[in-house]
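Email to the structure team, subject: Bacterioferritin-associated ferredoxin model.

Hi all, the expression group asked for a predicted structure before they design truncation constructs. Nothing fancy, just the tokens so they can compare against earlier work. One-line instruction: predict Bacterioferritin-associated ferredoxin, return tokens.
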Amino acid sequence: MYVCICNAVSESDVHSCVAAGASSTAQVKKACGWKPGCGSCTRRLSEVVGRACAAPVQEVETSAA
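Reply from the structure team: attached below.
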């Protein structure tokens, strides 16, 4: 599922960024090359990053595949 339609960033992309070491919304945005858009995804992105950071490493790797 897309987290941000403006930037075509999916939940899988977010999980991949977290698995690669991103631990904040700002770090995920930077890793994904996020460009300013409508902004309606900000809360959703924060929730997905929070869940991805809280998930065990194995679960993040599995859901990113």
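The helical segments are 11-19, 25-32, 42-54, 57-64. Residues 13 and 49 are 10 Å apart (CA to CA). Ping us if the truncation boundaries need rechecking.
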